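Allow me, if you will, to draw on your knowledge of protein folds for a short while. I am sending you one protein, given as its amino acid sequence and as whole-number tokens for its backbone shapes. Kindly check, if you would, that the fold set down in the tokens agrees with what the sequence suggests. The record follows directly beneath this note:
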Amino acid sequence: MNSAGWTSLVLWSACFIALSCGTVRYQPEQIHLSYGEKERSIVITWSTGNETDSVVKYGGGGQLLQTKTGSSTLFVDGGQQKASQYIHRVTLYYEDPDSLQPETKYFYHVGSDRGWSAVYWFVTPPEKLNDWAPSIAIYGDMGNVNAQSLPRLQAETQAGVYDAIIHVGDFAYNMDDYEGQVGDEFMRQIETIAAYVPYMTTVGNHESAYNFSHYRARFSMPGPYENMFFSFNMGPIHFISFSTEYYYYLHYGFKMLVKQYEWLENDLKEASHPANRTVRPWIITLGHRPMYCSNKDDDDCTQIKNRLRYGITPLRLFALEDLFYKYGVDLEVWAHEHSYERMWPLHNYTVYNGSYDRPYTNPEAPVHIVVGSAGCQERVDHFNPLPHWSAFRSSDYGYSRIKVHNATHLNLQQVSDDLDGEIIDDWWLVKEMPRIRFPLAEKMMEDDHLPSSRSRRDDFSNNSLPPVVQIR
């Protein structure tokens, strides 16, 4: 047999072994962490092309002496090629026999006897969670192309700057593109941060393909609703992540919008109970599309009758602004607009500053921020003239940092990547204990159905701004 014939025989044999010329992929990739059902649990998620065991080996001091097994699920992309992968999940609990210890750096790798990942690490929270002052990076709208903020986030994560990262919607642009290959590459990109700290998520409009299947399959958030809405605690903070997309993709069905609204009210009711508010005084909501913005692109957040705050018209069903106000949400974080914008304390287009000199000390309404400028191929958005309710805004690429110092003081910074990491906005939200409800909340509590603001101060038939602005 000549050399060409021998080469053909070898290649044919290799293809036969490799499942009829398909690539065998046992090597773990797209590794990322998240918080689990219990406050101290860590979920480790990764992908393989072919089915393998799901094993994590981990330990302190660089010795991977402990082993935990999990399970995998087959995910099939909705495109023509029906590309598939196995997504593996293993949960590490403090209650396990080989338990995680507080405030400990654990090293780990994932895989099976058919292939192992590199070794990564994470640090567990302190024993006294009430005294924990977590540092968090938060942003939205980061793509596979032009992910301008990612290198700086990689360096800061490796330096131990953050305890967690929160991505408020719009991943990869889009995870389903090119039969899911864009999603795979994006998950490989963020591995350099998400394999070291919990990477918590909120769904956005760019995840909508195949009824949000890529988002629902690829991430591992707590709760039974496939990552679409859930809550989790970090020390003194209660985070609530929910889907703004249920208000816009109604062709996927109305049922989940109803279920989410009921869940939101129950979760807020429990979180705002005095006993729980004493332990976790900060309530922060995470939703992709904002209620308020002043951008030029004419999105829904520039409209008075925004679906999130105004509800599904004409019946105004499932409006969220009064709900969040009623239960004393402190900070509402949004993305979608490719810019950064901080509002004054705001409810129903009316400013409720704590005082003229200290607007964010004991404010009488929630504070809204938009953090959608991490970087994607759609570039940044620009602004209309400054409205009275907007305090600061920037079209620089960048991301935010949230540091909750204690039960009363929260610091937020905006980092400009355009200006080589310069902090362009630095402010404090101060809410003294004991917490009191916002002024109109007691009235709302008297009515199980929330008194509609349309009968009170929100009857803007010509879509104009309300006539009264209160700035203290």
About this structure: Confidence is low (pLDDT under 50) at residues 6-20, 450-469. The longest strand covers residues 84-92. Residues 140 and 372 are 4 Å apart (CA to CA).
